[in-house]
Amino acid sequence: YSRIMFDDNVDVQSATMCYKIYQLILVNVGWANILPIAKSEPFINYDKTSSGCETPFESVNNGCYYFSAVQMDFFEATAYCESLAHESIYEITLAMMDYDRDEDQALLDVVTVKDKAFWVGGKSDDGILWNWIDSRDINLQAPLWDPREPNEVDNKCMIVQPDSFEEIRFNRSYLYDHMCSNTLDFICKIGNIKCPADFIRIGNYCYLQSWTIGLPDLTWIEAREYCQSLDVLDGYYADLSMLGLQDQDDYNLINILVDNYFGFPWIGAFREEGCSYKWIDDRELSLESSYWFYNQPTCGSDDHVGLYHNSFNDRTSLNDVTGNTSLSFICQMYSNL
């Protein structure tokens, strides 16, 4: 830490001791500030296979959350949470919801008991449409919102706090829009394992878009071989991307993957025989799926599947195409379990 008027520092190698000193200094916050500096040991090094959550994180249902002891604006809080994962294999971000109904409710209950407002990881660029910081859309009709929210176009960041009805308190907490520059407590959450280099996270999975890193167009078989050759994390492998997986929001996914891109990337589906299509994990790709473009598949010589983005109505659909055509492609990281 550094005292405001002085230039002395303490190098603390133990994460536990660092946290104890951190809490001690906060008692005297009028004369001291603290800045965690990454050394050989990360401030948080959480092992998800161990029982419970490592201090200063608290267990809430199935998740591990840190309820801050200092106040920051939304962007400072966002950066602070991410800094906790400096040397961790896991992402740490402002808490996001909408993954697990029971865990979301358990978090709301904790906020109600703490009886204060916290920043969480939702934001808006225009004050109208909202996204979680992992790019997922936020349903404005979701019951997580206070019934009157969001209601201020200038409030573009999200908080969670106990209900603010003046007439009666229902002992519940909700989501609210809030001015990003205000300083508040915040909630960090230990999330998914970090994505490898060149991959991006969308929801619960990691994806590589060939066109974003300058890879050449490849045939479907070449694209799959490239994905499979990637050296990803221990316990994981890479292959062409698929839809219809557990905990995967297909509608948001296919639109985020090709946002502002008008190419035709390969994904992991193909025609087996006749007019029978399959994903590379052997699941059926139904001909009745609403994700097919309106006149697809053709069931002719077009024997592999890509994502077609229709710029006229800004929609993305499945389209079959001849497998020896050279196209861009999307790889996805999967667990070996």
UniProtKB/TrEMBL annotation:
Coiled coil: none annotated. Residues 60-189, 202-332 form the C-type lectin domain. SMART domains: CLECT. Gene3D superfamilies: Mannose-Binding Protein A, subunit A. InterPro entries: C-type_lectin-like (IPR001304), C-type_lectin-like/link_sf (IPR016186), C-type_lectin/matrix_domain (IPR050828), CTDL_fold (IPR016187). It comes from the Eukaryota. This is C-type lectin domain-containing protein.
